[in-house]
Amino acid sequence: xxxxxxxxxxxxxxxxxxxxxxxxxxxxxxxxxxxxxxxxxxxxxxxxxxxxxxxxxxxxxxxxxxxxxxxxxxxxxxxxxxxxxxxxxxxxxxx
Length: 95
Description:
The chain is mainly alpha-helical. It contains three helices and two strands; from the N terminus they run ααββα. The chain has helices at about 5-20, 25-50, 75-95; strands spanning about 65, 70. A hairpin with a 2-residue loop joins β1 and β2.
């Protein structure tokens, strides 16, 4: 399995989940959160890749890079940005 296929799968699940949970969202804070989290992901992913802590098989990545970090790395940040606030709101109303 390539990282791109995994990323597409994760992003499809995020899109479905986001659609189903859209009534729980407050958009303005999510935009700010996305900016901060994606910036931090870009910085720290580049650091851990450059220092050799993490390495990717070049045959399995798409080749689209932000610095030295493959674009696929950002899917999990997007997942967290969507999943965490909606689950928080969902469980807050249920408790």
